[in-house]
Write a structure and sequence with these properties.
The complex is a heterodimer of chains A (about 625) and B (about 180). By secondary structure, chain A is mainly beta. Chain A has 7 helices and 33 strands. The longest helix of chain A has 16 residues. Chain B has about 180 residues and is α/β, with parallel strands linked by helices. Helix content of chain B is about 35%, strand content about 20%. Chain B has 6 helices and 8 strands. The longest helix of chain B has 19 residues. Classes of the chains: A mainly beta (about 625), B alpha/beta (about 180).
Chain lengths: ~625, ~180
């Protein structure tokens, strides 16, 4: 046997490490609860098993689902929702500057990435004007997020139009779980300074919370041309009430106002955002009854004062969904309907739209049958959503999903699904010297084929893989100044997520994504530039590795390594960075957190937008008080 | 070499000290402990029964030392004017002195024996169904949707003279 020569130092190190790993038996991220004070209402709501366990229903979902828990979010050290999403396989996140991001799933990233549906507690934050999300305006107090569910692949059958490449569903904590006072403040170099406060209280089955937060960021110092200062004030409430019928009522609302500066080729622009929203959701039955049904209503108003135009928009939505097992049969029916009305007023500055005011109704119905072909072994979900909108008319989005559970610790699934991305208001109605909207512009279509495998070889190891082939037609292009549907093609890829918990105090997460786009212009298409930028605008390889270590009950050391491949068409180089997160609980009520992000690499671009600013290493210190 | 050993020994000693106080109790165990404490507080035992003469409220645990440790915080707390004590059971005889028995391993011989011995006595039995699938406690903890919920066997509780209040029943995942 060959002996590898070892220095005395490395021996010392190895034995010390062994000693550390043997003695460290502390809980992996288990928050301590006061067992003498916590109520039964809270107990029934606490998630004790993470998404990586076989008895979790998530394990059985026949779709590429990834869950980020509150603990994952905390340990990432990220201060914005796009930054939190960076380590999820299949998700591309690129900073354009200090307050704007391009977020996409399985390619097509840009500021106006439009093949993605983003929901906060079921409320869509997708802006129908340009078909994307203003991430800088739509924040959520991070400490109040219970989990983020990311579904890669078409969610059209369940979620409707625009859930083409995926759905991001941000779910906030039940007010029963945010009792007492929470205060947080932080600041540092190259990062936002922020202060947040939350207060929760309870009266029997009725719990509520209110919160307010303020975030402020200077323009990035690394680029003299950067115009990305940011300021946002946000406040809101949530109230949860258990009903005598064993159902639950949720009412919540938020209000925000702020500005997100933006470099613009014709001057420097301050972009002002403000808005408010209100949501009520009534669950008629407790979870896990044979029948689950809920009614949700929400209202949303916002205003964006951009240097190109001013958008003011009201949205009203009402939705009813039901999932019911048909007696003792093999069938579980999922059905529901939604009505949404959105009305806007666009004040032109550089861009204008005709008509300047427009109201659109969108209504849809959905029916999916979950069938156990063989109980606990083979399952088939088959169904469709039919939606009508004022731009492209009726969209039919069927899907068929099959799952095989050879053992409790394995899920093998396959699906074929069709999804549509409805035209945005700008694509239909924009008037600008170089681009004109096209009322005949039709929806973009996708047929997606996916195969996935989830495996729990040991209780402390979870592996999920997905292979997909996406076939797109009628993709958006600008031909001779008119918006058209002249691009098509295929993308394919592979995604891997591994979660390991070798000891209760040590956790590792690995993710890898491979993505390849093969697009072409349809007959009549001329915009080769746009084809090249779309095709070469997504990283082929992406990987991340997270290591978290609870070195004592009161201290945590975490680091994340991230690699993103080059974007050849945009002249953006590959980059590899590290994030570091150190938390120290000074007393039961006080915690210090030190975060370093984008370490070990100098300023670099992540996207090539005219407004793009380089991303530089940052560090900040955070102080949490829970009296 | 001597210095090396000294260094390692020191390293280990410090760590062991550091971690002696470690909270090595996972969230699920804490939630189970909190459930037990809540059941003890809310459920009403028959006034006339002989065990009401016991000076303390005896919460007994079978097959899970971690729960007993998680319950440390509840020790001595007042349960209907009696201090709570926590006992780890390893035989069926002492079970008769308990007011509440938590059985983490209902499928084992001891678990079965105790369940059989105390049938219809005013002793609340709480069972962790875990992976055993056994659900014949008055209350059974089950994992649903990643959350720990509980099922109530109301006839069994009633036979034993225990009254489970509505505020507990309405949070049950299932009441039979």
């Amino acid at each position: 046997m060959a002996l590898i020569p070892m220095s005395r130092h490395s021996k010392t190190l190895i034995i010390s490490l062994a000693c550390w790993s043997l003695t460290c038996r502390c809980a992996w991220g288990a928050p301590a609860i006061d067992i003498t004070r916590i109520s039964l209402e809270e107990l029934v709501a606490i998630e004790v098993v993470s998404a990586s366990k076989a008895n979790d229903p998530y394990f059985q979902v026949p779709a590429a689902l990834f869950i980020l828990t509150a603990e994952d979010i905390r340990r990432s050290g990220a201060r914005s929702i796009p930054d939190i999403l960076r380590t999820i396989p299949g998700v591309q996140v690129a900073s354009l500057d200090g307050n704007k991001w391009a977020v996409s799933i399985r390619g097509f990233a840009s500021r106006t990435a439009n093949k993605l549906l983003v929901l906060v507690d079921g409320r869509s934050i997708y802006d129908p004007l340009f078909g994307g999300v203003f991430w800088e305006a739509n924040g959520v107090m991070l400490e109040s997020i219970e989990r983020i569910e990311v579904i890669r692949g078409p969610g059209g059958t369940q979620w409707g139009v625009n859930a083409v490449n995926g759905v991001i569903n941000i779910i906030t904590k039940n007010a029963h779980l945010t009792q007492g006072t929470f205060l947080e403040a932080g600041g540092g170099i190259g990062e936002s300074a922020f202060i947040a406060a939350r207060q929760g209280w309870r009266n029997g089955d009725h719990a509520s919370r209110v919160y307010a937060e303020y975030t402020q960021r200077e323009a990035s110092p690394q680029d003299s041309s950067a115009h990305d200062a940011y300021e946002m004030t946000r406040a809101g409430f949530r109230t949860d009430r258990a009903l005598a019928s064993r159902g639950a009522l949720l009412i919540k609302g938020d209000v925000y106002q702020g500005s997100a500066d933006e470099f613009n080729p014709i001057g420097t622009g301050q972009v002002n955002h403000r808005g408010y929203n209100l949501l009520a959701k009534l669950d008629f039955n407790p979870p896990n009854d044979n029948k689950q049904n809920w009614l949700q209503m929400n209202y949303d108003w916002f205003e964006v004062d951009h240097y190109t135009l001013i958008e003011k928009r009201h949205t009203y939505a009402v939705e009813y969904q039901e999932r019911v097992r048909l007696g003792t049969s093999r069938h579980t029916l999922n059905w529901g309907g939604e009505y949404r009305y959105t009305t806007d007023r666009i004040t032109p500055i550089v861009l204008s739209v005709t008509p300047p005011e427009r109201g659109d109704a969108i209504y849809s119905v959905r029916l999916v049958d979950e069938i156990w072909l063989v109980t606990d072994r083979h399952k088939l979900d088959i169904g469709s959503k039919v939606e009508r909108n004022d731009y492209s008319g009726t969209e039919i989005q069927p899907s068929i999903r099959y799952a095989w559970y050879p053992r409790r610790t394995q899920t093998l699934w396959a699906s074929i699904a069709r999804a549509a991305r409805a035209p945005s208001r700008l694509e239909s109605d924009i008037v600008f010297p170089s681009v004109r909207g096209n009322p005949d512009f039709d929806s973009e279509l996708l047929t997606a084929y996916e195969v996935g495998y989830r495996l729990l070889p040991r209780p402390d190891l979870f592996i999920a893989t997905t292979i997909f082939l996406n076939d797109y037609s009628r993709l958006t292009t600008v031909d001779n100044g008119i918006i058209t549907n002249n691009m098509q093609g295929q993308t394919h890829g592979f995604e891997l997520a591994v979660r390991a918990r070798p000891t209760p105090s040590w956790g590792m997460d690995l993710s890898y994504s491979y993505l390849d786009l093969n697009l072409e212009l349809a007959s009549g298409g001329t915009n080769r530039n746009q084809l090249r930028n779309t095709q070469g605008g997504a990283p082929r390889h992406q990987a991340s590795f997270h290591n978290g270590w609870q070195i004592s009950p009161n201290s945590n050391v975490n680091f994340t390594l991230r690699y993103v491949d080059e974007l050849p068409a945009l002249n953006v180089d590959a980059y590899a960075v590290a994030d570091l997160w150190l938390a120290w609980r000074f007393s039961p009520h006080v915690e210090w957190v030190l975060t370093g992000r984008n370490l070990f690499d100098g300023p670099h671009y992540e996207q090539a937008d005219v407004a793009a600013t380089r991303v530089a290493p940052s560090a900040f210190l955070e102080f949490i008080l829970q009296p | 070499m001597k210095r090396l050993f000294l260094f390692i020994a020191l390293n280990c000693a410090i760590l062991t000290q550091l971690l002696a106080a470690a909270v090595d109790i996972d969230l699920a165990t804490q939630v189970k402990a909190a459930y037990l404490f809540n059941f003890a507080r809310f459920i009403e035992w028959p006034k006339a029964s002989a065990d009401q003469q016991e000076p303390a409220f005896n919460l007994c645990i079978i097959g899970d030392n971690k729960i007993a440790r998680a319950l440390d915080a509840a020790k001595g707390k007042d349960i209907a004017n009696r201090p709570l004590i926590v006992t780890l059971l390893n035989n069926a005889e002492t079970a008769l002195h308990c007011q509440l028995i938590f059985i983490a391993t209902p499928a084992t011989g001891l678990g079965r024996a105790i369940l059989n011995d105390i049938k219809d006595l005013p002793i609340l039995t709480v069972i962790d169904s875990g992976n055993s699938g056994v659900e014949d406690g008055m209350i059974t903890l089950v994992l649903v949707d990643g959350r720990l919920r509980f099922r109530v066997n109301q006839p069994a509780a009633q036979r034993a003279g225990l009254r489970i209040p509505a505020q507990v029943l309405k949070l049950a995942e299932n009441v039979s």
